[in-house]
Amino acid sequence: MTSGDRDEITVVLAEDQTMVLEAFAELLGLQPDITVLATATNGPDALTSVTEHDPDVLVTDIEMPGTSGLDVAAELHRRGSRTGVLIVTTFARSGYLRRALNAGVSGYLLKDSPISELADALRKVRAGEKVISKELALAAWDHTDDQLTDRERQLLREVAEGASNRDIARRLHLAEGTVRNYLSTAMAKLHARNRTDAAKIARERGWI
């Protein structure tokens, strides 16, 4: 089939674990109506591949080097891209789901879903439908609203990666005192003991 074939579903895969990426590509390649155009192992490459290939659907994990799958989805949404985004991840957290929906994603599945469910989800996304795992749909009813600002999330992600306040200040071109103030506010919102605890709580809730 060619990329102009109406019945063909074209896909870009983004996953930082090479073995999982190759398995997805191989299994989806067995579907008669699905063609994997390109693969990527980090967020920036995923965005570049979507721009270059203009697929029907981007299948992406959340946590990847450089830029998260949610950030890629948000950027594609901002650009008005026609490409639907299907998140496939291990994280069954309502916080991630809410962020994904806010970023304009079309679907959210867990990695332990059978490949037939993934293929069916791709067909639905291509048709303009929304697809959410039943486990996540139930979890969405039991959530605490994300009260963090984008800057607080950014700083807590840095903390989760092991960066010191000085490192964060240098990377983000902020005063060290400003970094401390942002983190103190985040700690108060999360009722955390310290900056590391705040990053842990935020990650467990799917807020970063």
Q: What does this 3D model show about the protein?
A:
With 208 residues, this protein is an alpha/beta fold. 50% of the residues lie in helices and 14% in strands. The chain contains ten helices and six strands. The protein has a six-stranded parallel beta sheet with strand order 2-1-3-4-5-6, with helices on both faces.
The CATH superfamily name of the largest domain is Response regulator
Q: What fraction of the residues are assigned to beta strands by DSSP? A: 5-15%
Second rung of CATH, namely the architecture of the largest domain: 3-Layer(aba) Sandwich
Strand order of the largest sheet: 2-1-3-4-5-6
Overall morphology = elongated
Mean pLDDT: 88
Count of runs of 4 or more consecutive helical residues: 10
Helix % is 40-55%
The main pleated sheet reads as: 6 strands, parallel
Modified residues (4-aspartylphosphate): 61
Domain HTH luxR-type: 141-206
GO molecular function: DNA binding
Keywords: DNA-binding, Phosphoprotein
